[in-house]
């Protein structure tokens, strides 16, 4: 079984929001609630933690209504906060498998998380980075934030709770749902276009 950690401590300055980024409403539902719901329904996830920071105090309050544990991170940046989280779990539960997910990935389905975890155990590695081919982004006219040799990191990773450099494998999945990091107004428009139905889970793959 795996512990899921949702990264929800960033400022989200690119969106220019009046609210905290994890609380951005999509289909009248806070974005982070989509992530929590998909993870909660996974048979592979034993517990969900959410990493908040001084930048997201309202998100922390919102989570009191959810069955999640909260980790207070310094909020100094993604890499710094991830290191803080790994050190936290290294002391608490050494060598535990952690699924790290950004709170701005509302479209990922439970079945996809299960698939990712299954591949991780099949690979037999310490760490795994999930990516999507660039052509999927081009197909839906989405501009990736980061591009490496024709692939785009998704913001989903699996690591051991060891605060050190870990041997990492790459999993490439051709799934549209992994492309939508909600980082700007165009991403919101794309979400409304492809997932703007009643339950926010319109099939596109």
What's the gist of this structure?
This protein is 30% helix and 24% strand.
Characterization of the model:
With 205 residues, the chain is of the alpha/beta class. It has a single domain, classed as Alpha-Beta Complex (Spore Coat Polysaccharide Biosynthesis Protein SpsA, Chain A). It contains 6 helices and 9 strands, in the order βββαβαβαβαβαββα. The chain has helices at 31-40, 57-62, 78-92, 110-123, 134-139, 185-195, and strands at 2-7, 25-26, 29-30, 45-52, 69-72, 97-102, 127-133, 151-160, 168-172. The protein has a 7-stranded mixed β-sheet with strand order 5-4-1-6-8-7-9, sandwiched between helices. Strands 2-3 form a two-stranded antiparallel ribbon. It starts with a strand and ends in a 10-residue tail after the last helix. Mean pLDDT is 90; it is low at 198-203.
What are the key terms here?
single chain, 205 residues, alpha/beta, Spore Coat Polysaccharide Biosynthesis Protein SpsA, Chain A, seven-stranded mixed beta sheet, two-stranded antiparallel ribbon, 9 strands, globular
Relative strand content: 15-25%
Overall geometry: globular
Number of discrete domains: 1
Structural class: alpha/beta
CATH architecture: Alpha-Beta Complex
Side by side, the strands of the main sheet go 5-4-1-6-8-7-9
Strands, total number: 9
pLDDT averaged over residues: 90
Q: What is the helix content? A: 25-40%
What is the fourth-level CATH superfamily?
Spore Coat Polysaccharide Biosynthesis Protein SpsA, Chain A
Radius of gyration from the CA trace? 16 Å
Count of alpha and pi helical runs: 6
Major beta sheet, specifics?
7 strands, mixed
Segments where pLDDT lies below 50 for 5+ residues? Answer: 198-203
Q: What is the ordering of alpha helices and beta strands? A: EEEHEHEHEHEHEEH
Give the C-level CATH assignment. Alpha Beta
In the CATH hierarchy, the third-tier topology is known as Spore Coat Polysaccharide Biosynthesis Protein SpsA, Chain A
Termini separation: 27 Å
């Amino acid at each position: 079984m795996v512990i899921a950690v949702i990264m929800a401590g960033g400022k989200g300055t690119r969106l220019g929001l009046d609210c905290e980024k994890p609380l951005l409403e999509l289909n009248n539902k806070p974005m982070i609630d989509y992530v929590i719901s998909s993870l909660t329904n996974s048979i592979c996830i034993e517990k969900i933690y959410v990493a908040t920071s001084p930048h997201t105090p309202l998100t922390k309050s919102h989570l009191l209504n959810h069955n999640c544990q909260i980790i207070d991170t310094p909020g100094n940046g993604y890499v710094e906060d991830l290191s803080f989280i790994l050190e936290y779990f290294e002391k608490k539960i050494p060598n535990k498998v952690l699924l790290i997910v950004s709170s701005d990935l509302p479209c990922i389905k439970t079945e996809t998380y299960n698939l990712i975890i299954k591949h991780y155990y099949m690979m037999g590695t310490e760490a795994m980075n999930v990516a999507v081919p660039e052509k999927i982004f081009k197909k839906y006219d989405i501009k990736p934030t980061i591009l490496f040799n024709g692939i785009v990191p998704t913001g989903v990773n699996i690591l051991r709770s060891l605060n050190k450099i870990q041997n990492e494998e790459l999993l490439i999945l051709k799934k549209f749902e992994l492309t939508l990091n909600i980082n700007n107004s165009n991403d919101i428009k794309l979400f409304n276009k492809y997932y703007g139905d009643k339950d926010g889970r319109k099939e596109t793959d």
